[in-house]
Amino acid sequence: MPCAYILANVTVNNPEQYEDYRRLSTLAMKTHGAEVLVRGGEVTVLEGDWAPERVVLLKFPTPEAARAFHDSPEYGAARQARENIAVMRMVLIEGL
After folding, report:
1. Which residues make beta-bridge pairs with 88?
2. What residues are paired with 87 via a beta bridge?
3. Which one, 56, 70, 83, 88, has least CB within 10 Å?
4. Residue 82: what are its φ and ψ, rounded to 5°?
5. What is the tens place of the pLDDT at every residue in 18-68?
6. Pairing of strands 35-39, 86-95
7. What are the residues whose beta carbons fall under 8 Å from the beta carbon of 33, sequence distance 6 or more?
8. What is the rounded distance in angstroms from the CA atom of residue 38 to the CA atom of residue 2?
C-alpha cells in the first residue's frame, strides 16, 4: 500500500496571526501521525518559474490517513485560524 504526502505552499499575509494557525496545525499533525519532512526553510528554485514562499511536506502511512488529517476537526480549527491571513495551496500525493 502506498504512503501519502501532503505538499503545501503557503503565502503568509499576517505573520503574527499565522502563529495561531501553526500551533493548531501542529496539534492536528501530532494527533494524526504526520511525519513532518519539511516545514519552512529556505527554498531555491532550480528550474521553472515556481517561486514558493513557505513549503510544508508531510508524510502519512496511507492516503486515507492523509485525508483523515485534512478532514479532521483538529485541522478544521487550524483552517479557521488561517482564514484571511494566508493563502494555502495544498495537494495530496501518493508515493512510496
Report:
1. 10
2. 11
3. 83
4. -85, -15
5. 999 999 999 999 999 999 999 998 999 999 998 889 999 999 999 999 999
6. unpaired
7. 60, 61, 65
8. 20
